[in-house]
From TrEMBL:
Gene that this sequence comes from: glyS
UniProt xrefs under InterPro entries: DALR_anticod-bd, Gly-tRNA-synth_bsu, Gly-tRNA-synth_heterodimer, tRNAsynth_Ia_anticodon-bd
Source species, domain of life: Bacteria
GO MF terms, alphabetically ordered: ligase activity
Gene source species: Marinobacterium maritimum
Swiss-Prot/TrEMBL catalytic activity: tRNA(Gly) + glycine + ATP = glycyl-tRNA(Gly) + AMP + diphosphate
Protein name as it appears in the record: Glycine--tRNA ligase beta subunit
Keywords: Aminoacyl-tRNA synthetase, ATP-binding, Cytoplasm, Ligase, Nucleotide-binding, Protein biosynthesis
């Protein structure tokens, strides 16, 4: 079958930079999905994206949709002749060309034929149009008097199949073979002869690097080189790199400088101002200190780059001056002078103000600090001050600096180092994989803050629903679990939740509040372990016991994961399932005392003896929480367990013997349940 290359490029006004990558990927996916649905093959599909264009190049695309076998079922053979004639006519054939198909419900006429495939050129306009219609654009716009809608005004449309223009009109544009060059370097039309020429001609003639990935890596290399040129190391934020890639067609990195006096402001504030407002990269010196430089990307190869640099320096100066002013102004008033002002900020209507929240956290953080051998006094003070930086000018301007500015202001006020450190650490981990709070006071405050939010929202019956989680309760729960497990803290989550619930007083959902939040939090473990490659069965085996200590929960998970790799695991899981089923069918209480005088078979005597020995050995192992060793010792029971089930009838006719054997199985089951419900692994 004949093949050609295919190019589609939609030219627009500047596209939203933060959405460009997503739009490009969706455009590609939409086109390839349309081709796949039509049965049209191609060798490779490649996206292109720049500030003023979305494009897709397909190599080796088939020029004809393949023919396909079709089958249409018609009326029953007993139907009136007119009905049969009507069906045959709709298929374009006579009655004599219909076949009869036998089914369980009777005989029916059926038409079988071949539907000729359409030309690819005739299908491409619909496929491209459909892909554009499905792009993830939250709000489309109109322009001029046109009724056409898109994310930005469209300017040109290039569609080539081989060296021929595809006959199409999309978004009010007639397809042609012309693209356009750089707005300043080559503000002219460029005629394309073949799709494969697209990226090369745009780059060489039009001064546009259409390949997003190529442009991105070029920017990375230039920024790194600029950092080295000033004797430092450029810091590349990947999201910022994506954004500046989406802002430039012909990127040129330039380095500017700002006054060293601004370095008295916390570096994070300066970096955030440069990044958010100006899209600048920063550089660090050999001591990881911020250097008084910024690296910007110009979308032009200027004949006088110094003029471009000076223009950027003029723009950044007032931005940094604002940050310096906020910092100096904020320091004139200590944090604790802002405590009462927190009464003006509502945390949640039913849960009160941020001041109320701080008071609740104070008691809870102090209690947690004592449990983890921290300083309760520090924890109380940190909780009192924890939200005060919300009332500062710096955090009002740069909300991302919440906590971090609290740290700087607390140090300035002469607060203890650990109290100041907790100001910033209370929000850690901020996202998946983020670092955890390191100080005991920071740990206590971070856990207390999250547990207060969790119990409060559940207490007013507002848990997360579906994808809606406005207070980020799932993230809060996972943060608490991470802190406890990764810091190996021996904390009982139910105890902490009970303390947190008590700080709230009476709420509409106070009944069973700690239990409900505990269940929610333990369920968060599932996603965490899934990311670590732990199977769902392993999680469920531990979850069935509902351990209330996250650290204990994690140790059991590790032990069960190890156990599943043992040769005995499968057989023991099956045996546990069998024991569980047998015991589950019994009515009334089953004793655990085994009468050795009632043991008749050698296999049951061997099991009873082995159990007694293992029970004795495991007592200190369980006390130490060494579940891995416990399961390894239990794995040694496989042979005696197999022998028991092969040679002993549990449900004996003699009631006393039957009860004795059930007691033996209950003791066996109880031993395994000391770690997890192994029966769920089968």
């Amino acid at each position: 079958m004949s093949q050609h290359d295919f190019l589609v490029e939609l030219g627009t006004e500047e596209l939203p930079p933060k959405a460009l990558k997503t739009l490009s990927g969706a455009f590609l996916d939409g086109i390839t999905a349309g081709l796949d649905a039509a049965g049209i093959g191609y060798t490779e599909a490649r996206p292109y994206a720049a500030p003023r264009r979305l494009a897709v190049l397909l190599t080796g695309i088939q020029l004809q949709q393949p023919d396909r076998q079709i089958e249409k079922r018609g009326p029953a053979t007993q139907a009136p002749e007119k009905a049969v004639q009507g069906f045959a006519g709709s298929c374009g054939v006579g009655i004599d060309q219909l076949e009869v198909m036998e089914t369980p419900k009777g005989s029916y006429y059926v038409y079988r034929g071949v539907e000729q495939g359409q030309s690819t050129a005739s299908l491409l306009p619909g496929i491209v149009s459909e892909s554009l219609n499905k792009l993830p654009i939250p709000k489309r716009m109109r322009w001029g008097s046109s009724r056409t809608e898109f994310v930005r005004p469209v300017k040109w449309l290039c569609m080539l199949l081989g060296d021929e223009v595809v006959d199409a009109e999309i978004l009010g544009l007639k397809a042609g073979r012309k693209t356009r060059g750089h707005r300043f370097h080559y503000n002219q039309d460029i005629e394309l002869i073949a799709p494969a020429d697209y990226a090369r001609v745009l780059k060489e003639t039009g001064k546009v690097i259409a390949d997003f990935a190529e442009r991105r890596e070029l920017i990375r290399e230039q920024v790194i080189r600029e950092g080295e040129r000033i004797g430092g190391t450029a810091q590349i934020d990947e999201d910022l790199l994506d954004e500046v890639t989406a802002l430039n067609e012909w990127p040129v990195a330039l380095t500017g400088r700002f006054e060293e006096r601004f370095l008295d402001v916390p570096a994070e504030a300066l970096i955030l101002s440069m990044k958010e407002n100006q899209k600048y990269f920063h550089a660090l010196d050999a001591d990881d200190k911020l250097m008084p430089y910024f690296i910007t990307l110009a979308n032009i190869e200027s004949k006088d780059p110094q003029q471009v640099i000076e223009g950027n320096e003029k723009v950044i100066r007032p931005r940094l001056a604002d940050a310096a002013f906020f910092f100096e102004t904020d320091k004139k008033q200590p944090l604790d002078a802002r405590i009462d002002k927190l009464k003006s900020i509502v945390f949640q209507q039913q849960l009160g103000t941020v001041f109320d929240k701080s008071q609740r956290i104070e008691g809870l953080a102090a209690a947690i600090a004592e449990l983890i051998n921290g300083d309760a006094g520090y924890a109380r003070r940190a909780a009192q001050l924890s939200k005060c930086d919300l009332m500062t000018d710096m955090v009002f301007e740069f909300t991302e600096l919440q906590g971090l500015m609290g740290y700087h202001y607390a140090l300035h006020d002469g607060e203890p180092e650990e109290v100041a450190q907790a100001m910033d650490e209370q929000y850690k981990p901020r996202f998946a994989g983020d670092e955890l709070p390191a100080s005991r006071t920071g740990i206590a405050l971070a856990i207390a803050d999250r547990l207060d939010t969790l119990t409060g929202l559940f207490g007013i019956n507002q848990p997360p629903t579906g994808s809606k989680d406005p207070f980020a309760l799932r993230r809060a729960a996972l943060g608490v679990l991470r802190i406890i497990v990764e810091h190996k803290l021996d904390l009982d989550l139910h105890q902490l939740l009970t303390l947190a619930a008590e700080q709230h007083g009476e709420l509409p959902g106070s009944e069973g509040l700690a239990d409900r939040v505990l269940d929610f939090m333990l369920e968060r473990f599932r996603a965490w372990y899934d990311d670590r490659g732990i199977s769902a069965e392993t999680f469920l085996a531990v979850h069935a016991l509902r351990p209330t200590s996250p650290l204990d929960f994690d140790r059991r998970i590790e032990a069960v994961s190890h156990f599943r790799n043992l040769a005995e695991a499968e057989a023991l899981a099956a045996a546990n399932k069998r024991v569980s089923n047998i015991l589950g069918k019994q009515k009334g209480e089953i004793a655990t005392d085994v009468d050795t005088d009632l043991l008749q078979e050698d296999a049951e005597k061997a099991l009873a003896s082995a159990l007694a020995e293992v029970e004795h050995d495991l007592q200190p192992v369980f006390e130490q929480g060494d579940y891995r060793t416990a399961l390894e010792k239990l794995a040694a029971l496989r042979e005696v367990i197999d022998s028991f089930f092969d040679n002993v009838m549990v449900m004996a006719d003699d009631e006393a013997i039957r009860a004795n054997r059930l007691a033996l199985l209950k003791r066996l089951r109880r031993l395994f349940l000391g770690v997890a419900d192994i029966s769920l692994l089968g």
